[in-house]
């Protein structure tokens, strides 16, 4: 019995992972989904040579037997990583954002789907400060904000919107990730590099144009098509959920309509107290305005 089969038997004795069967039916399904289509031959990366089956009409064809084999090996590792800690999903491809987000939410993991926040993995202190600031600003609206004009409160909502763009899938981020799952490592090369520098293993769904440097577990597949990526992500999410036993992180979406309504209501209440003479609104001026006023008084 091979070492790989022994590992699978040990894993299956604990839990049944959603492995792909190495048979014609599975290969046929992947073919229908378009998982075998690579990039044009002139756009390939030499490090992906071993995962290419052949070339047809100027397009590289991915070896789906290796896709299945590598995917099953990756599931073994993902299960162990999920048992040890929290997982981060990364993909900034527009057509894959919702798929990645849904997989992360389902598996109770973190995600980055808009733009990679530089230093997320290599500068934990600054990243945690940004996430903490994001959460505190959201909480402040529900606790009540005082001495702020309507314009200032709406500016705060806009600032929260910018932070949500970067850290929306990281609101529960407070410790080092046990693994990073990347779709298209070429597009997310900074995330892959930061993970490597931080000693975090990377599992990547990669096309024929992707470099394999700093990737621990590569799954060769068409990473531009929704069908095959969704098919693989569903099983990856199921595996992570089995590993963390549902004890991962909960996604906390920001309701911007509600925040805007709270800002408007707080401003109305402030106007009422002003009219009743019970409170005075704080007027903020810039340093330039103060200097101008002081200069005018000196001239008088």
What's the layout of helices and strands?
Layout: H1 3-14, H2 24-33, E1 37-40, E2 52-56, E3 59-62, H3 64-84, E4 87-90, H4 97-106, E5 110-112, H5 124-143, H6 150-167, E6 179-183, H7 189-197, E7 202-206, E8 217-220, H8 226-244, H9 256-275, H10 287-299
Parallel strand pairs: 4-5, 4-6, 6-7, 7-8
Antiparallel strand pairs: 1-3, 2-3
Helix pairs in contact: 3-8, 4-8, 5-6, 6-9
How would you describe the overall organization of this protein?
By secondary structure, the protein is an alpha/beta fold. The protein has a domain at 3-121 and 177-244: Rossmann fold (3-Layer(aba) Sandwich). It is built from ten helices and eight strands. It has helices at 3-14, 24-33, 64-84, 97-106, 124-143, 150-167, 189-197, 226-244, 256-275, 287-299, and strands spanning 37-40, 52-56, 59-62, 87-90, 110-112, 179-183, 202-206, 217-220. The strands form two sheets. Strands 5-4-6-7-8 form a five-stranded parallel beta sheet, with helices on both faces. A three-stranded antiparallel beta sheet has the order 1-3-2. Helix 4 (97-106) links the parallel strand 4 and strand 5. Helix 6 runs antiparallel to helix 9. The protein is elongated, with a radius of gyration of 25 Å. It starts with a helix and ends with a helix.
